[in-house]
């Protein structure tokens, strides 16, 4: 790992791999959350399995936590090193023409998403830790849907989630394609497919999460 992150290319490669892992996680997470809109019992069953399965709790969850921390840490490190490498901006550089706003401000969207993750962990992960390990309450497979539903009773929380997922979509719009480029997945035949898939991914995934939040708010 130290060798992989000792150079700029290595850090970009490692960051891309962590991004791909998180892209897969987002699909799985959204799939589970959409069950709360489609079928209450199915959502409770899936959440109960995820919440008490040892493989998920004690292997996949720590790996996910490491991937999130690593991805954001590498992003901040790369941003700092890039800024140090070009302390004087070229006067002739027209940033709006040479690159998109999101590609120039990935660090900003990343910081906002990181702040949102802190709220998300407070809402759900800390609650689970307290429920299972602090208070030691007996498992209840019927509790998950009501707990999720209750979280979106307040308009301010729904608004924060919607704003965060819009920014996530913008972040993904650039990050999806960038992660594949960083691992060398560039080819005249496949790059257009990756771009098209990344575009739809960056729209549908955030839209799905927004749908879940709005659904639970309007059905209070």
UniProtKB/TrEMBL annotation:
TM ranges: 12-38, 58-80, 101-122, 155-176, 197-218
Record's signal peptide: none
The keyword Transmembrane belongs to this UniProt entry's keyword annotation: yes
Entry GO CC: membrane
Domain of life: Bacteria
Xref: InterPro entries: Cytochrome_b-558 (IPR011138), SQR/QFR_C/D (IPR034804)
Keywords from the UniProt entry: Membrane, Transmembrane, Transmembrane helix
Entries under NCBIfam families matching the protein: sdhC_b558_fam
Protein name, entry field: Succinate dehydrogenase
Taxonomic classification: Bacteria, Pseudomonadati, Bacteroidota, Flavobacteriia, Flavobacteriales
